[in-house]
Design goal:
Length: about 120
């Protein structure tokens, strides 16, 4: 089964964290910060903790905007991580798995830059 992602929609909490990160780092684009966050989480060997993440903000982007010119690379890395880590989570769909990694990564970035 080939896993894909159409859109990424952020929670209000993630949006607020990214607003802080934008002001601290000077990076203006949500997608750049989100890519960094995704990579930070994927660098961990452990699966992110499962949690319900609402899509309650007005920040939404297509996968192509989120991942940019390396969309296929990010997707391949996510697929590999999903194969290795999804067994450690309750049955979770691929898109939710990506959102869990993004959520953990945004939290990592937020902790790193706020301190």
């Amino acid at each position: 089964m080939l896993h894909t992602i159409d859109t990424i929609k952020l929670s209000e909490k993630q949006k607020q964290q990214l607003i802080r990160l934008k002001s601290k780092t000077g990076i203006e684009n949500w997608n750049v910060l989100c890519r960094w966050a995704l990579c930070m989480s994927l660098a961990e060997k452990s699966a992110p903790p499962f949690e319900e993440i609402p899509s309650d903000s007005n920040v939404e982007m297509t996968w192509k905007v989120f991942a940019g010119e390396y969309a296929d690379v990010y997707l391949a890395v996510l697929r590999e991580a999903y194969q290795k880590q999804s067994a450690h989570l309750s049955p979770v769909h691929f898109t939710d798995f990506a959102r869990l990694h993004l959520n953990r990564g945004i939290s990592y970035l937020d902790m790193k830059w706020v301190l």
